[in-house]
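Sorry to interrupt, but I need a hand with the structure work. Go ahead and set the record down below:
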Amino acid sequence: MYLFVCFIVCFLQLNRCQLEEKLKQITKLGTCKSDISYQGKSLTYLSIAALGGGFASSVGLGGGVVWNPVIIGMGFPPAACAATGMYMIMFSAFSNCLTFWLFGSLDVRFALWLGVWSALGIYIFLSVVGAIIKKYRRPSIIVFFLGGVLAVSTVAVPTTDILHLIQLSKIPG
């Protein structure tokens, strides 16, 4: 049921974006050079990025590992790319949280504690990045942060998985 709802919402939003794009082309209002065309090659790239991001999410990586490089390669501004990734993560995290809560597997007090500290960390990090961008007037700095996160993920995820497997192999039985 969850996947069905996701596909329906995705389909409806794609139609809405295509309609907005047509209106922008007709009226020539609200257009900018980084606008994405939701048809042809762009739609193919976005579909591949969405499927790849979904697959990456299903194996424990963030969907942004695939999504962010693709849309940056399409000419999306780095700040908008990061914001879009965070927006998508918000829905993914909410649905995961709701699923765990519905099945009684969520420690609500721990989730709130973790949420407060995460929000504080995000606020501090965004403030620092905003100050760096303002000082150097280079929004492309976000690309370096995204690259750094990808590099750390490339090393950290397999390392923790291997350590977990080693730990499991030592358990008798």
In short: The chain has a mean pLDDT of 80. The two ends are 37 Å apart (CA to CA).
